[in-house]
Amino acid sequence: MLIPQPQQGTLADLATHKLAHSIVTGELAQGQKLNEAELAERFGMGRGPLREALRHLEGMRLVKRTPNAGARVVVLDRKTLSDLYTVREALEGMACRIAATQMSDDEIEQLSALLDKHETQIAEQGGKVYAQSEGDLDFHYQIARGSRNQMLMDMLGSEQYQLLRMCRYRTSRNAQRTKPALSQHRQIVQALANRDGELAEMLMRRHIQGAWRSISEMIDREEAA
Amino acid sequence: MLIPQPQQGTLADLATHKLAHSIVTGELAQGQKLNEAELAERFGMGRGPLREALRHLEGMRLVKRTPNAGARVVVLDRKTLSDLYTVREALEGMACRIAATQMSDDEIEQLSALLDKHETQIAEQGGKVYAQSEGDLDFHYQIARGSRNQMLMDMLGSEQYQLLRMCRYRTSRNAQRTKPALSQHRQIVQALANRDGELAEMLMRRHIQGAWRSISEMIDREEAA
DNA sequence: GCAACTCCAATTGTCGACAAAGTTGGCAAA
DNA sequence: TTTGCCAACTTTGTCGACAATTGGAGTTGC
């Protein structure tokens, strides 16, 4: 689970995690109004902690607040997603380049093993693309960790960037792209193993560009229907 | 002023801005404990809005909270700054590449005019490096705007990223680097005018690497003393 | 029939008070 | 003198109530 510590100290943090999860999984629809009193009751807490949670989620860009008019779940329109993937390309490309010089041989080996696991999962899957999607995030996060850059790790992984997971949940249903993605992942690991940072960055950027094209086409089809 | 709307609706937002400003300018020292009751009184508001503001600042990475132990101003140690500049290199490089194809001729012309203004400011300066520092941020933010990518703009400009301004305030006092920086800025504008995105990205990345080296050396000197 | 106005309910913003956790200082025993 | 424990104080976390603003329903006038 990539959502940070599900339970910890304060109610506000708990509410943050619950809400983030509900938003990411789509349990709370995009653009939906978030009623403070109702949510507070559902979580069994007062409105104070819940308001703090909303402020935190606002910082995460998962909700959008307008003064005196409450908070709404963010809507991932085409432009927002496009912007997101551009940022991702820049950040993950950088992470990959650094990881090539910073990761230990052991870590790269584990990354390779992770891909083996994905491969068997895909082979025996059925409709469990969801697992692959989460696994894909794992792969990318491991590389972010490999950069030894805490800010990159925060932005790409735990805290910031839940937007990406949200996007995944929406689009992973009919993702036909698992096999080419896996192949690209293997290429990236190979470049990392060769300690070729420039190549690794380039492969990662192309990988993300490809993912965006795939998602973009999917949105086109959805809009046509 | 790059801090977004100083006064707007709610007290919590107001407190957010005031606190952000105090932290960025160093009025609140790094690592300083933030006492809720005291701050609430100073701002003339209850603790509720102030707590929300702290949550927001936590999302901005300007304060660090530990449950049941309050919030402290973040400390910019060497590693954090290094990570920050790496992220900046990736994001601003990307912004610059896109801006080369997206900015209008008029915008590029204005950018060039901005640099002219900086040049005269530097010539007649004295010790007013501060103004140049803010001006430098302006330059970088204009390029972010040129990318037409709202997420990049948020990350590099208004909301997120006040960390950078904080760093600037700390290091701008004895910045000897204004002249080479201006020259690099001009090169970047030239690349933008030529619509050469790849070159513009490369120049921007080198520019930021140079800035980091300069700051890194400054930290070395400070640590030696 | 449509527009605009008014009033009302619902929702957000704010405050003060209480509960819980953490911190500090002093006191006693080794 | 040092060390460990205990108690009081400080600070954070939480709740309920009140004020202010908004959005909408209903009504009235044109």
What does the main sheet of chain A amount to? 3 strands, antiparallel
Reported by name, the CATH topology of the largest domain in chain A is Four Helix Bundle (Hemerythrin (Met), subunit A)
Give, in spatial order, the strands making up the sheet with the most strands of chain A.
1-3-2
Helical amount among residues of chain A, as a percent range? over 70%
Quaternary organisation: homodimer
Instruction: Name the overall outline of chain A.
Output: globular
Number of domains of chain A: 2
Please compute the radius of gyration of chain A using only Cα atoms. Answer: 19 Å
Quick one: how many beta strands of chain A?
Answer: 3
Determine the N-to-C terminus distance of chain A: 34 Å
CATH class of the largest domain in chain A: Mainly Alpha
Find the CATH superfamily of the largest domain in chain A. GntR ligand-binding domain-like
Q: What sequence of helices (H) and strands (E) makes up the elements of chain A?
A: HEHHEEHHHHHHH
Task: Label the CATH architecture of the largest domain in chain A.
Answer: Up-down Bundle
Instruction: Give the low-confidence spans of chain A.
Output: 1-6
Tell me the structural class of chain A.
mainly alpha
Task: Explain how this protein is built.
Two copies of one chain form a homodimer. The first copy, chain A, has a three-stranded antiparallel beta sheet with strand order 1-3-2. The N terminus of chain A is likely disordered. Chain A is 71% helix and 4% strand. In chain A, a hairpin with a 5-residue loop joins strand 2 and strand 3. Chain A has ten helices and three strands, in the order H-E-H-H-E-E-H-H-H-H-H-H-H. Chain A has two domains: 63 residues, Winged helix-like DNA-binding domain superfamily/Winged helix DNA-binding domain (Arc Repressor Mutant, subunit A, Orthogonal Bundle), CATH 1.10.10.10; 147 residues, Four Helix Bundle (Hemerythrin (Met), subunit A). In chain A, helix 1 packs parallel to helix 8, helix 4 crosses helix 6 and helix 9 runs antiparallel to helix 10. By secondary structure, chain A is mainly alpha-helical. Chains A and B meet through helix 3, helix 4 and helix 7 of A and helix 3, helix 4 and helix 7 of B. The structure holds a DNA duplex (30 and 30 nucleotides).
